[in-house]
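Worked example 3 (structure in, sequence out).
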């Protein structure tokens, strides 16, 4: 069976946190011998649209990994970005049969983000990659093609 083609969509608003997420993601994909590409978007809110654009392309990917970080601030902006990015990704997965790994951290502060992003800590980038690969495999098991 062909190795999966994965698209990583990265929102590097907090570049040092994004770099840690990416490190874990790439390591997991390389271990699985998956092919992957990376695109960058301005923030977590834009990730679902980028995935949909890629899924509509002439050569869609087998799976997608959403990477980003949203840290609570002083306004309700945090709530909207967290909710809408998560909702958008879930909607894509359900309505368009997309295999998506969710690696958008939603945290209260930078310390929490780093603890979750670092490869030697919780490695949420690696977890998102593994979740994506598991969903790609599940789609294949049920005979669902990329569309």
């Amino acid at each position: 069976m062909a190795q999966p083609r994965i698209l990583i969509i990265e929102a590097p608003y907090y570049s040092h946190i994004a770099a840690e997420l990416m490190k874990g993601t790439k390591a997991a994909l390389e271990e699985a011998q998956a092919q992957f590409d990376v695109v960058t978007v301005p923030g977590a809110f834009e990730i679902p649209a980028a995935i949909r654009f890629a899924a509509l392309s002439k050569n869609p990917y087998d799976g997608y990994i959403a990477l980003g970080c949203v840290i609570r601030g002083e306004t309700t902006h945090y709530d909207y970005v967290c909710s809408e990015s998560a909702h958008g990704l879930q909607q894509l997965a359900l309505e368009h049969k997309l295999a998506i790994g969710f690696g958008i951290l939603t945290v209260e502060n930078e310390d929490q983000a780093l603890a979750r992003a670092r490869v030697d800590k919780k490695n949420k980038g690696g977890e998102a990659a593994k979740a994506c690969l598991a969903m790609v495999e599940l789609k294949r098991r049920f005979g669902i093609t990329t569309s």
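Notes: The mean pLDDT is 96. The domain at 5-141 is CATH 3.40.50.960 (Rossmann fold).
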